[in-house]
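Students often ask why we bother predicting the structure of a whole assembly rather than each chain alone. The short answer is interfaces. A chain on its own may look different once its partners are present, and contacts between molecules only exist in the joint model. In this exercise we take two input lines together and write out one structure for the complete complex. Read the inputs first and try to guess which parts will touch.
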Amino acid sequence: MTYFTDVVTLARKDLRLELRARDTFPAMLLFVISTLVIFHFALPADADEVAAQGLLWVALVFTALLGLARVWAPERESGALEGLVLAPCDRSAIWLGKATAVFVFLGAVELVALPAFGLFFAPVDAATVAGVILASIGICAVGTLLAAMAAASRTRELVLPLLFLPLAIPLVVGGVGASVSPDPGRYLAFLALYDGIFAVLCWASFEYVVSE
Amino acid sequence: MTTAPAIEAIGLEKRYGRKRALRPLDLRVERDGFLVVTGANGSGKTTLLRLVAGLAAPTRGTLEVRAERADLGYLGHEALVYRDLTALENLDLYGRLYRVPERRERIGMLLERFGLWDARAERSSTYSRGMLQRLALCRALLHDPALLVLDEPYTALDREGAELLDRLLADLRGERTVLLSTHDPSRVEQLATARLALA
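Now the answer. The structure tokens for the assembled complex follow.
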């Protein structure tokens, strides 16, 4: 139980920091809406729904990337990550707390983005919503770990997209598949499998990312 | 019966790439001892203290620190607190992670002692350098650690703050194991049970 108490403590800290600083969430929100508006005008009026579904996933992945780029900024600015590393909690709890907070931000952005997508392009069905939820779990799990790795680099703005985007390809494949396929179950199962595998890998490897 | 030393290092060395950050050294700090580490800039004081705290790994040699993470209090060059949280929120966060018993009372006592009580609800980003150092000391002492690693703790403290720290260290002497690096060894000369001058 103490492990999850630590996770809740750390996630609550991140939510409080974001609510106070308002650094990332408004930027993510503005970005996703702007992107959907641009796509709305860029896509030909007679374009089919399948193309539009692809654009939704492009918008979501790049919005997530925008948020992930700043996810460790509070720790980097004040050296607080060392304070957390020194604490006697399991170091994977630091990752899980951060990933949970990112999931909340991304989920809040998607709560706005999906109705906006429905307004501009096509109605969003249950399979798409399920795909977005599952893909968001994967994005947060993998992205939080990679952002921690990138945060240690001087070229973090370059490193994070280079690490994250290749690993996000399966999520886009699964997400688009769930959105457009007549049989979305296979794609949702694929996303769930991705989440399970990468969540365990990230959970197990975070210790090594924050250790010298 | 002799007790094992709190810290024991043999041939301890640290390099970052080809740059040597700490020359090989042997070190033994007895339990409840007070080691004062001195040396010029770049001699490896901070590196040694980071190694002891577990924030860096040795390149060569062995280092044994007989303290759990929960028993270690570390003060570095940065305050290791969140700038957008208040002093109270920062200490509450660490108090929860360290499972400090009677957390609120302990936090209140430390904030009072370090003269930060009136500024407890202000974000630490508004603090002066000296106030941040006092907050960092509160954080390092919050869980009443058995081993204290203090890297130039007098940095940025005004006269009142420095005298406060003098009294605190005097209280801790013989009760806790202390490693302290400083450029002004005369300040802690009477407290030291061992000295290490890094070249």
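Check your guess against this: Residues 2-210 of chain A form one domain.
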